[in-house]
Amino acid sequence: MTPQPRSVLHVVAHQDDDLYFMNPDLLRSLENGDQVTTVVLTAGEGDGVNIDTGDARRAGAVPDLTGYSTARGCGLRSAYALMVTGDRDRPWHRHAVRLAPGFVAERFVLDGADRVSLYFLQLLQGTPTDDGSRARVAGLWDGRLSAQPTLPVHGGTAGDTQPVGREDVITALTTLLDHHRPTAVRTLDPDPEHDGGKDGFVCSDHEDHAVTAEFTLAALERYREAGHSPVVEHYRAYANRFWGGNLDAAALTEKGAYLAAYAGIGAPDICPQGTCERCGDRQLGTDPYRSTHMRSTAYRYSPATDWLRLGPGGRLNAFAVLGGRLAFWTETAPATGRWAGPYVLGEGWVAPTLAVGGTPGGPAEVVALRRSLSAEQGTVVDVVHTVQHADGSGFNGWRSLGNPDETHPDQRRQREVGVPSAVVDQDGRLYVFVRDFAQGVSVRRRETDGAWTPWQSLGGRFLQDAGTALVTGRGTVELYVPGKHKVWRWFQSEPGGAFQLDETLSTGRPATGGVTAVDSGEGRTCLYFREAGTQQVMAYRQHADGSWPGAGAGLGGHGGTGAVAALWVAERGAREACLAHRGSTGRLVLSLPDRDREVTGTHWNESGQMFAHAPALARDASGAVVVAVVGTDGRLHVRRQLSPEPGSPMGPWLG
């Protein structure tokens, strides 16, 4: 196949959001030679005081909104120039661009690297009102404001202050999507979680982040109407501080270096771009590591690894979300390595992470989160379910399963629902698990007669929205969910029975981003996750008597973020399972058992191109292991073992 050009578009609220929340993914796209475009929605003028937030001199400083916004933009360009060329002072070419009728923004193109562009839309974060408050840019989205003015920067080319309406913003973003034709779009969290450590509803995030994501989704829906279906990724922001850090020391050092460039640390007294008095965002001070929310780069919708499975007719099926719609690929015949698709289905908008289950070899049962706008309630998020046709040819429409918090009078609660986990037991019961507003777990079950039970809380505290469920060899269902300090486990004593919390499982602190559990035979489950702060892959395998080891086994890995895909290999151990994860370069890292059973341990090897979300592993109809990823080019990429024998090498990448 002809390689698909990779174009990645970032839409952020402030001049540092991509550096804090999307790096190192941003850096990897730049290193890979992708077309990279970043759009900054607001002027980021804050309080207009460009002095370290810990410096006592701030109290007597005179605010300069234009100066501070100018300095932040200058700092962002310095960071990008450093990432791309190694020279923070590399010049940029700037010019005005009309993005909507009556709305002109400024575009910067890096000298010698015209594949890298920055757009500054410069909407004021807050406009002073008569009562002394500030009308926030969020008012444009919800209709409280008819227009928000822009803040021109020093030396700008976009002209004077412009009044910008809600439709202008959506049109501007749609114009940029149409022009740059991204295969992947990265933006912020539209439904950030509340601070679970405080009473009442205290949002953990900046409201500009959420409204930027809302505007981006509105533009993406229009872009989709024109026939485009990119990969979409949403990044957590301030909520990163709640969960185990998912960057290792090398990635954190790298991230810190570019934040230092943005902050103007080491910058000359005279701005090389000639636009500001103190280049960079000096509010960050001289220590870029003091911010707790920089220690992770995490998706709001934690990626799953169960999206590749053997379906009807012995054909592998792969599932993803492209442009907010369910997409699937299928083998044209069993074990051939030839694929058809993607078939993109359905209306509405679903979040990027799916839960895929079903009886072995049978139709897939897919569960997702759907976001929609209601005139009465605003944004509504519900859990939806669909079933594949018996012959594997397509899907029935989405059926709503509601939301554990949908009846609460505070409608903000239902927007925090976590990504679903789903599993079908041996008798055909479907279990759907999600994290609820209380940061515990709720479950809804379809019985063998097709009737659905109401949502039921299983409890739990301070849980991430990244659980995984499995059916054991005994036909019981188990659920594993990473929490703030450990992994939690719920289990059934008998098929179809009630769920019990396992008080005996004690693990190290998991990094934000997901866990994986597999049936390892003999009634034993093996749990895999990344260790917070190191990103090493850890394994905890249940003992034969059902108890758990006091410590996990470290399996190494190649850094990176996200859940680890796993397939158990008969008569081997936890270190000899087939394992795959997203490495520090954004590429696939794979470990297969050695042909020689006496050779134990992992054998990590990196290959392929940068991909989104998390990899998946499955066996085809012949028993050969297949690994799949969805690239940032929006395509399915697969590798297959040359034979089904353990330790057989993998064939080339296809797709």
TrEMBL record:
Basic and acidic residues biased stretches: 405-416
Pfam families: DUF8189
Keywords in alphabetical order: Zinc
Endpoints of the signal sequence: none
Annotated spans, Disordered: 394-419
Superkingdom to which the source organism belongs: Bacteria
Domain PLL-like beta propeller residues, every copy: 314-643
Membrane-spanning segments: none
Cell cycle among keywords: no
Alphabetized InterPro entries for the sequence: GlcNAc_PI_deacetylase-related, LmbE-like_dom_sf, PLL-like_beta-prop
GO biological process: glycoside metabolic process
GO molecular function, one term: hydrolase activity, acting on carbon-nitrogen (but not peptide) bonds, in linear amides
Transferase listed as a keyword: no
Stated name of the protein: PLL-like beta propeller domain-containing protein
Organism: Streptomyces bauhiniae
